[in-house]
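Changelog-linked ticket: guanosine-5'-diphosphate example.
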Amino acid sequence: MSIRVYELAKELGYSSKELVKKLNELHVSVKGHMSAIDEDTAEIVRHELLGKKEQEKKTQKSKKKVEEKVNPELRPLRIKVPLSVKEFALKINKSAAEIIKKLMAMKIMATVNQTLDEEITRQIASGFGFSLEKILTEEETLLIKHKQFDDGQGLKFRAPVVTLMGHVDHGKTSLLDVLRKSNLTAREAGGITQHIGAYEVILPKGKITFLDTPGHEAFTAMRSRGATITDIVIIVVAADDGLMPQTHEAINHAKAAGVPILVAINKVDLPGAEVDKVKRQLADIGLMSEDWGGSTIAVEVSAKKETGIKKLLEMILLEAEMLELKADPDRVAEGVIIESKLSKGSGPTATMLVQNGTLHLGDVFVCGLTHGKIKSMRNDLGERLEKAGPSVPVEISGISQIPMAGDKFYVVEDEKKARELSVSKNENLRQEKLMPAQRASLEDLFTQAQEGKAKELKIIIKSDVQGSLEALGSSLQELGTKDISVSIIHSQVGAISESDVMLAIASDAVIIGFHVGIDVKAKETAEKKGVDIRLYRIIYEAINDVRLSMEGLLEPTIKESFLGRAKILQVFKISKLGKICGCMIVKGKFVRNAELVRLYRNDECLYEGKLESLKRYKDDVKEVGEGLECGIGLDRFDSMQSDDIIECYRVEKIARKL
Ligand code: GDP
């Protein structure tokens, strides 16, 4: 059963043109007045638009009257959003299947555990005759309260927070040590310093806070948890070695975060130092140095000879001045956890970076899933402090449990409030675990673009050779349209690593792997966090998928779920059957009728196909579990070797369209 747009328009009292516009606003894609809509969708549209018409009428009348005249069919529904399809179904006393059906009519594919955001919940609720009244979570109430402190009145300049990144052995640690020595107070204190994860350098012209866990992994891990704490990134490049893979990676991570980059060209004392070569390499990737007419500040330094350090510090302060970093020292404190540990004497301790306000001894706070009351505060020189203002890192004690790096902390009025908040956050977290967050994916790109949520498709490309990176990168970029642009935020030779997955989470990107595999840890994180990783062996297929996704035509979603992993212990040749591998199931299980298996050697995928046979001793079996040995044969493939890894997957096709 379906109805034409012009018929529905007539029924609802709209012109066809108006209705087409409204339908598009409701994400029902129709071309014109002769387009057909199915009855379910029409029903939702009726609810939605009749509700709107009522509201339009309402606003013209007095407020009191309006309340009485609210569309009688729309009953108020007070719930917390986001929530899962299942929870929503319970709240309105319907079956999850009914909700899913309505969602499908809106061209949204959902499972029972999927999270519905506020907008979708509102639409669906009205489809069922409810008007949504959102209950704020304790945390949202707290955030709103904290925002109220920001009246913009008491803003003062604060010190920049700086992270050093670069290739291993290029001198990050050495440089951090030297930078630390330039601290005026440190000199007075006789250089007894403690590692607390960050330190302040006080200079005649201002202060700088350095995070002393160098490396882009920590930086992006924090960012993937929603914490951006670095104002400036210093890329350290050894002048005798030039830009190396991790330098490129670090630069891309900093760029993806939108953090300004300064370059420290280190080890200029070495005879093999080639500063110009480094500058040329930088120019090649769009970081032309200032003396070459570009806008990137590159300072020549030597951590060993301690030269160029003063200039580097000056440049950091100059950059900070341009960034106009400000905070209000007179407000209630908030910030982020940089490190935490369990120490014998004082229980859990954590290094907090104050981002706004001033933290005082005795302040009560919530942080991550835990809470506490500041018992003591020390800086990196071991000095006891009574208060810490914006950009100051302090190690504190008085926390009930160890928080995680990247957790935000907020000072609250009393301990009762702090306890309540951490309970409600724990509850939210439990729920979050049940529902993986919605992330950028090729399948949803078109829908998200229509909803105005996606204007850019961010892609990370990993490949086996440099040549295909470039070919793929430029072809993908060309697919950009005026509505959705394509940007390659990172591309590199090598297997898909955990750092790539973190970057994808932090930047909402999808990952395309070409002739490469995925690290075990990266795979686990990606599965847990719902990162869209696609592996291809043919360039055209990768390009085609992205093109289709931009047009909303990407065919059915293929969902792969990992079943098990086996390691080949020995390979046997059996004349009739070809080669059979004697394997040990190291994780999960192998299932005879699984749709897909892959064989990896050193993270490189050499085979994709089906199981030919699965045996225990001489018998064919349906399933073999973890810790057991079995014989595995692969369909038309016999160049396996011992120590290769075989993985087994279930593949489901989920129809995207009705
Ligand atoms: P990181 O891995 O980036 O933290 O690098 P390190 O700071 O550990 O330095 C790696 C090596 O380079 C060490 O042996 C340092 O002594 C050396 N190194 C660091 N900076 C300089 C420098 O400016 N000149 C010279 N000649 N060696 C340096």
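Closing comment: Example verified and attached. Residues 166, 168-174, 266-267, 269-270, 302-304 surround guanosine-5'-diphosphate (CB under 6 Å). Residues 39-59 form the longest helix (21 residues).
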